[in-house]
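Kindly inspect this one:
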Amino acid sequence: MKTRVKKAIPEINELKAELDRVEYKRKYVNVFKSTVYTLVVVAAFAVLVATLWMPVLQIYGSSMTPTIDEGQIVISVKGKNFEQGDLVAFYIGNKLLVKRVIAGPGDYVLVDENGTVFVNGTELYEPYVSEKAFGECDIEYPYQVPDSKYFLMGDHRKTSVDSRTSAVGCISEEQIVGKIVFRVWPFEVFGTLE
């Protein structure tokens, strides 16, 4: 009888250990599932935010130097009613470009042979331009910006192909992805953009 009791105790301990192992495995699986579900929801939310409200863009080309250099990553915010000086991303054909708002609907723009820009007869203060240039231009000045459109120019005036040429022209609000507000990469220049 004593042998049976002694045998039963190890069997009970083994059974308890097995039940503990099964319970631990069940808890582990539940925690794992919960973590995966949370990550999927967070990723879906991030994709929605990035697509609908704050697109993240990588810069290609040198038309916005020295303000934004090629390879930098920026965040834009969707919106309307852009103001003079705002940096905006927009589609032209299948290309996504970044330029600066120079004038809005109904404004008159004039760029003289030295590259100085005038809007409605007033010289535009442009501390972001390091070298003024007339650039590639095939429109007649003074030029009136059509309704619901914006006259955009790159900060690197010599190389920028922008609203000064009929190939790009003025940009409508529907073409604009959003206002560039923040630079996230590289970390050395992390911060807001103006």
Remarks:
- The helical segments are 2-52.
- The mean pLDDT is 80.
- The two ends are 89 Å apart (CA to CA).
